[in-house]
Amino acid sequence: MPTTSSLYRLAGAAGLITGALLLVSVARRNGVIPDIAATRALAPPASALALFTLTALYLRQRVESGRLGLAGYGLNFLGLAGLFAIEFTSQLVLPYLSESTRTDLLASPARTAFLTVAFVFLAGVLLFGAASLRARVFAPVPVALYLVGFAAAALRGAVPEIVYSGGLFVGAIAVFWLAAELLRTPAGVVPGEDLVRQVDQRAA
């Protein structure tokens, strides 16, 4: 039966892959590597794998982060799930449609859906980031980078490309860092253990 620490390590490994895929997307969008079908196909899995890592990050601090953490996790999770669908459509469907069809599609209710996903993701990043900073389970620097980087990335289409790409880059660094913290989770650690230890120390 898998232990809690082994699940954290798996989530950490998923985070490392997510960070790498995000860097590939940044490189592709900025002409460092070819923008071809093979490199575009690597974009959707980043959002899918990030769901696993995000869940582990929340579970590791679910007691300390409280209701704000739960709300942030829920919105962040829904936003990532929506981004997976958007990335899949953007990278593997839209390029093979005619320009007129793409224009009609983006003028349809699909545009509203895209904007809704972006708003939900942004709200989730802000709330989850704030809850994580308050919880103090993870180092504050990667949490701040996560908050700033993915908040900028959530504004895709409303900000210059350099801001969006910069957000993805900063977000990738944050995911690498947080994934490394998950990988270093000691065996036997359970959510809330740090909080219980602090309470016991104060009581003593």
Provide an overview of this structure.
The chain is mainly alpha-helical. The protein has one domain. It has 9 helices and no strands. α1 packs antiparallel against α8, α3 (43-60) runs antiparallel to α4 and α6 (109-135) runs antiparallel to α7. The longest helix has 31 residues, at 62-92. The model is unreliable at 198-204 (pLDDT under 50).
Question: What is the residue-mean pLDDT, rounded to a whole number?
Answer: 89
Would you count the extended β strands for me?
0
How much of the sequence is in beta strands? under 5%
Biggest pleated-sheet summary:
none
Provide the low-confidence segments as ranges. 198-204
Shape: globular
Q: What distinguishing features does this structure have?
A:
204 residues, mainly alpha
Structure described in brief:
The chain is mostly helical and about 200 residues long. Helices cover about 80% and strands about 0% of the residues.
How would the blueprint of this fold be written?
Elements: H1 4-29, H2 37-40, H3 43-60, H4 62-92, H5 99-106, H6 109-135, H7 140-154, H8 161-183, H9 193-203
